[in-house]
Specification:
Elements (H helix, E strand, L loop, with lengths): L12 H8 L1 H11 L5 H18 L5 H12 L1
Helix pairs in contact: 2-3
Amino acid sequence: MFQQLLDPLANSLVWSALFAAAPLILLFVLLGVFRVKAHIAAVAALALTMLSAVLVWRMPVLQLFSATAEGML
């Protein structure tokens, strides 16, 4: 069972929270500043979310895909 790390970045809750907000910030910037279509911005934010889940929070890849598929349903 995967147990999420609450402060994976240098044991700093602030840096971890800012990094966790990065996909949402990316989504808003792509939609508001660059006027990208919503479905493309959402896929980009999903890709950043998946990448950070594996690299920062050390989530197992198979569980990542399982959770992503469940979230899409």
